[in-house]
Predict the 3D structure of the following.
Amino acid sequence: MSALFWLGALGWALFEVAHVYLIMPMPGSQRAASIDLAYFLHGYRLGFRVLLAALVLAGFAAAWRGRIWRKALVVIALVIAGGITWLANREMAADRMFVQPRTLTMARPTDNTVDPARLVVGVTLNGEARAYPIQFIGYHHQVRDVVGGVPVMVTYCTVCRTGRVFSPSVDGHEESFRLVGMDHFNAMFEDRTTGSWWRQATGQAVVGPRKGARLAELASAQVSLDEWLALYPASLVMQADPAFADRYAKSFDFESGASRSQLTGTDTVSWREKSWVVGIELNGASKAFDWNRLRAEHVINDEVGGTPVVIVLLADEKSFLAFERPDAATRFELRGDSLISDASRHALGDALPPLPPVQASQEFWHSWRTFHPGTERY
């Protein structure tokens, strides 16, 4: 009977380790195709714990009998299993490590306290513009807001270096999400209604009852706050939540690419795992544009999925925008704050006639390649 105790205690500890290992950035865990197993363990975690606890209780009396050293081993086993359980569900739970804002404060430019050199994810809807500093959303991972009367879910994953803005509406109803972990180094959110897991980089449910569903992505741009306010002078700007002031990044290392952290650092050589690319997906096709190439050329005229596009690196050399070109023959170059073609002059942000914006995302190469396996490279 004592064997039941040891089987239950060991099984409990191993279960809690596996439960965390598969959905957190542990050595080797993020490169395995383990999402279905992770979801199974997570979905049936209560059942596993009840079964293993029953084994522990069934064998406890037999394991406890005997000399003092046997009792000591029983206590040590329970402490270890309990400690692992506490760590796995408290200290290492994704939604406890990275918490959504308790107070969302949006300030007018005259009241803004965010450094204008900081990068932001900017959103414009129905004539209203709002900016969300990566310094803040990189910690929170998810910020819920309403822009121009439209509910939005602003997301950011520092391990993928990707910002996405989605409509949180699913099946006609506004859904709630919590950060549950990551898969292939990308943040995953769990919806409250069905417990399905959604990938941040694509907005797609990858496992659970809603598998295959996709959140509608809303247009956004990643630029410096300076450049954003030049384009949208009346934009509101997200401010730091005082409750998390000590958790926000103080340096510019991540934003500038100076960080060499194993998870969030940058490769300076092109087409390495953590090299930066600008990714565009159009008409079922996708293409990655090397950031070093964009810095060298400042303007790239190309096409994605048969649609002519132009990508522009702005004067601060960290902000970028993408537009649809009128046709493949029209090529642009940048002069000052204007895109110049042989046919017309287009002022950025207020072009006449307007160039339709194209959704483009800066991302680590390993992330874009993983979630767009058929991507082309410029």
About this structure: The chain has ten helices and 24 strands.
